[in-house]
Design a protein that fits this description.
Elements lengths: L2 H7 L1 H4 L14 H9 L1 H4 L8 E4 L17 E4 L1
Antiparallel strand pairs: 1-2
């Protein structure tokens, strides 16, 4: 709805890139692969992409314990 927000949402498509330097996730191979697999989604540069991160650890410090924690983080 806002031209300023739309400008920020499309920055990843129009920013200057330096060959071999990753300055934004859109410069990475995973982003480019996603675009090639899902061309309909990537056709609109304002579509929001989400990243899912997990990292497991054992809260008791022993690998023999049957308990572990896996926090899940979802980022825009």
């Amino acid at each position: 709805m806002s031209p300023k927000t739309a400008e920020h949402m499309t920055w990843h498509q129009s920013h200057d890139t330096i060959d071999g330097v990753m300055m934004h996730p859109s410069d990475g191979e995973a982003w480019k692969h996603f675009n090639s697999v899902h061309p309909h989604f990537s056709a609109e540069s304002r579509n929001v992409r989400l990243r899912l991160c997990t990292d497991g650890f054992n809260p008791f410090g022993s690998f023999a314990a049957p308990y572990s924690c896996w926090p899940v983080i979802l980022t825009v």
